[in-house]
Amino acid sequence: MRKRTVLFGVARLLQVMGLAMLPSAVIAWFDAPGLTGAERFWAPEFMGFWIAILASLLVGSITIVLIRNSAPAQTVREGFAIVTLGWIVLALFGAIPLLVWFLANGGSASVAGVTRALTDSVFEIMSGFTTTGSTILTDIEAVPRGLLFWRSFTHWLGGMGIVTLALVIFPAMGVSGYHMFKGEVPGPTTERLQPRLAETATILWGVYALLSLAETLLLMIGGMDWFDALCHTFGTMATGGFSTKNLSVGHFDSEFIHWVIVVFMFLAGVNFLLHYNVLRGNTRVLRADREFRFYVLVVVGATLLATLVLQLEGLPSAEYSRTHFRNNPAPYEDFVAHVHAETEKVDSFYGSLRQAAFQVVAITTTTGFGSADFDVWPTTLRLLLLVLMFFGGCAGSTGGGMKMIRILINMKAASREIIKMARPRIIRPVKIGGVPIEDARVGNIVSFFILFLSLSVFSGLLMTFFVPDLITAYTSVVACLANIGPGLAGVGSTENFAWIPIPGKWILIFNMLLGRLEIFTVLVLLRASIWR
After folding, report:
1. Higher per-residue pLDDT: 179 or 58
2. Could you report the per-residue pLDDT of 460-470, keeping only the tens digit for each?
């Protein structure tokens, strides 16, 4: 392991993030009417940004100057180390603006107060970079717009990957770019569109930016101002889920906005290589891609099932739903009124279809936006949404979860084993689209599947020490490991993660990182031999 090379790569990422915080700092500066220049400079909502920007640029630049002549990396070790350590360092430096604001607005100067503020800040920004969307903010609309823009922008940066952005800005990073690309891009495939990796990264970011621009314009046509449109675009295209409103997308009583976000959440869950080919006029790739067809089948099938259940069963009574754990339950009369309002949303077939489509796409793509409180839906649908949390989007998309291709290959591998039990001598390779998959690759995917489930169970067990409800404990882990955002019960669509004890939050922070970097990228660095 060339440790100096790892430091060089992380330093480059710090430089990129320092520049990326500038738009948020500008918004924070101009979003303080009535203050003089000096007062604005020392206002906590702006001070945190200039501290973070200076720290990122200075630390990054000084590190690069000190180790400029380090040898380039040639192995996967350095690539994975740069990705993992880079994301950790970026979350710590990126949390500075929130940390300053938390400490200036009610945060205690005691060790316990600073620890809680630091934990909450890192939780929120790691949730942003990993496109998880879980939040500790209890009143989002009270947070300054500069900070809201930054937390949403971390989604957009993390969705396509800040390492791929660094490869666009610094094509010659002095390290093996392919190994970093492999460690960060979601899914089991990392195909190149062009011989030079920097060109591939540029194409992916170009498609990403084009779709983001299209959604922003449509949301503005639907009635959002530029700020809300941009922030919700960041959350949609990155499949993140941070909103600028306490009620998430449900705040905007607009069918047009609702369906625009549904469409772009669906598009964000598609492999961006397919988007690139379609934009070039090659639509045949959609019919030929088995993963895309499976993705469509899952989304359409789950939407129709949810619609039928909502129509046939309706919502359970308020008395039944009230038995679901809440950390701070609402008064009985308020909760009854809430359930009544949720019932009205699905009182027609179109209403059921609209809400079912939104929540199924939001959960399947791991976006996590909310248009309804699905925690008061029938138990069948709560279980359905929990299962969909594991699926995720397609490989090469910005979605989290296991990815559709892994689910599909696991199903085919299981089918093959059943057939071989009856016919032991048969030679039957796993095929996707008629193309055989190497057994080594099938084994890797099956191992990922087992590891993902094992980590969710183990982390869920740890969370039971800090959370008094089993459903809340387990779904909080799934929501973070699969980069979903909301879970069920105490961390449901209308709840938040603020009340979870500090040790529990750090468990969830680690799960966010594991999920976004596809588990192996992080766990491989825990082996002592890797660093020798």
Report:
1. 58
2. 999 999 999 99
Q: What are the residues whose beta carbons fall under 8 Å from the beta carbon of 364, sequence distance 6 or more? A: 269, 298, 299, 302, 388, 391, 392, 393, 399
Q: How many degrees, rounded to 5, is the angle at CA 9 between CA 7 and CA 13?
A: 110
Predicted confidence (pLDDT) at residue 333 exceeds the cutoff of 90: yes
Stretch among 106-120, 187-201, 413-427, 431-445 having the lowest mean pLDDT: 187-201
Token reading at 211:
């779709």
| Buried-state track 274-299, b at ≥16 Cβ within 10 A, e below 16 | bbbbeeeeeeebeeebbbbebbeebb
- Write out the H or E segment, with its range, that includes residue 53: helix 44-66
What is the spatial distance between Cα 219 and Cα 277, in angstroms, rounded to a whole number? 25
What span, in angstroms and rounded, lies between the C-alpha atoms of 294 and 180?
29
Find all residues with CB under 8 Å of 225, minimum gap 6, and list them. Answer: none
CB neighbours of residue 452 within 10 Å = 21
Alpha-carbon distance of 467 to 434, in angstroms, equals: 47
| Phi and psi torsions of 144, nearest 5° | -55, 150
pLDDT of residue 407: 93
262 half-sphere exposure, CB direction, 13 A CA radius: 20
Which residues share a beta bridge with 436? 431
CA distances from 462 to 476, 511, 529 (A): 11, 12, 27
Indicate the pLDDT class of residue 478, thresholds 50, 70 and 90: very high
The Cβ of residue 93 has, within 10 Å, a number of other Cβ atoms equal to 22
Phi, psi dihedral angles at 143 (to 5 degrees): -80, 140
